[in-house]
Amino acid sequence: MKNKILPFFGFILFICFSCNSTKNLTASHAIGKTAVQIKDGNQLIDSLLADRFSYNKALIDDGFNSKKQLPIPTVIINNTPLKTISFNGLDYLVKGDKVVDIKGLKLSASALSIITEKLSNLDQIQYNCCEKANLEYQQKNRDKNAIKTLDRQYFAALNTLKNIISSIATEARKRNASVSIEMSLAKIKLPDIINPDMKTKRNYVAKIE
Q1: Other CB atoms within 10 A of residue 79 CB
Q2: Which positions ≥6 away from 51 have C-beta within 8 Å?
Q3: What range defines the domain where residue 46 resides?
Q4: How far is it, in rounded angstroms, from Cα 14 to Cα 37?
Q5: 3-state SS of 101-116?
Q6: Burial, 62: exposed, middle or buried (Cβ in 10 Å; 0-12, 13-18, 19+)?
Q7: Angstrom distance (rounded) from CA 31 to CA 9
């Protein structure tokens, strides 16, 4: 039995090392399905990455006998009350699933729409991947390939989210920030499906053309 699970742990180890930059993070985030009163969005994303990294490391150390709590699926901007969340020094005003303003920037409706599309879709992907991976971990006959896929998509969605907010911060410094942001984000293509199915091999990760 031990030999059968070694390849799976090898993959988990690969995922852990790929997220090595998050291992020393001490950021905390809201417990439960909704992240409420979040001020630092970067800290939240990093803490979500660190939580999964820590859980995967526990699997390597203790196998499936690990008593460590599964990472809690947590939304970043979706399904939240009116609030301000900071990404890379910019304050985003979020209401429901929409970014309605970024403080200090004069953004067109189309620019706000594309920002919302990218952030909201990736947020939904990372949340669903975390939730589905957790459910699969708890099954008696767990599907290790499904877990591998969901873990990979989870990390990729969060890292793509980080790249997008970094791009927005860069374009925001330009003279015509609204147009620059819109053109930059238009190059990033998101998947059609935001509810990943564990049994499919479809790609749920954003692609940059």
Answers
A1: 14
A2: 71, 72
A3: 2-208
A4: 34
A5: EECCCCCCHHHHHHHH
A6: exposed
A7: 28
Do the Cβ atoms of 126 and 48 come closer than 8 Å? yes
Give the CA distances from residue 166 to residues 15, 138, 171, 184, 200, in Å, rounded to whole numbers and listed in that order: 23, 35, 9, 11, 31
Q: What are phi and psi of 208, to 5 degrees?
A: -105, 120
Cβ within 8 Å of residue 28, ≥6 positions away: 47
| Spatial CA neighbour of 205 closest among 133, 151, 131 | 151
In the sheet with 98-102, reading across from the earlier edge strand, the strands are 80-87, 90-96, 98-102
- CA atoms 155, 79, 86, 32: torsion sign: negative
Question: How many independent structural domains does the chain possess?
Answer: 1
Tens of pLDDT, residue by residue over 160-182, are 999 999 999 999 999 999 999 99
Is 97 buried (19+), middle (13-18) or exposed (0-12) by CB count in 10 A?
Answer: middle
d(CA 186, CA 205): 15
pLDDT score, position 43:
95
